[in-house]
């Protein structure tokens, strides 16, 4: 009954074209990945506790107030990042309204509804991170959840572009190679987890309070860097193996393009990581590395989604009678 009422309200909106739906889905990817990047800005500027409470910024106020113990810059950066959550929510709500109004298939509706649900969950995780004093594992969960949202948003974008009616599922990547694609995704996940551990033991805690230092991961950072690098090499090796496999059986231009983009991004991400390590982890490279993580996640998700698509069933042409 409640859902029917929701549908009646949505039906008052203009019917979105397929192009409008795809643009909205693309904006969802950009906002989900973008807030991870602004989160890295918060961390490297030590603004993580610029708003020391949640959901309020300061006790009794949702907005920054003059507070001698917290620098104005830190308040502005952290509060600005919180405000971006509303942009993410608006984009997530827009894709739900667009695909619901267009009466897209159930699969698309499920992915669309995951966007606002995941964004709310991310806001809660962010609140826990602040209340826990930026302890490293809460920051790691926050980052990993963002990457998961980027993956889901990218799959949603791919599915929005597929037809609903008079279509059949086509497996464009053979099953053994599709399994290899999934393994590359798992290697990416392991690389991301190890990367958050490197951050947890590294110099950018998100706050530089001398009185209450942020708890760090007490593991030698060089060992964590090696683990992170080895997982990245495994990820790249699986992608190279996938490339040879697809070249042997043949692949479409779309898959070839996606594969090339993934490999290029992983190589670029590796180079950024190397420069970071040998230059003392400068702030700007941390931000670029987080942006690269989001780009690699989106590109891998796009490759995965391209392995099984829905395509229009060709209409039967009538055979002329003699």
Automatic annotation (TrEMBL):
One of its GO terms (biological process) is heme A biosynthetic process. It is found in: Membrane. GO terms for cellular component: membrane. It comes from the Bacteria. It is a multi-pass membrane protein. Pfam families: COX15-CtaA (PF02628). The keyword Membrane applies. The chain crosses the membrane at residues 83-101, 108-128, 134-158, 179-201, 221-247, 259-278, 284-306. This is Cytochrome oxidase assembly protein. It comes from Rhodococcus rhodnii LMG 5362.
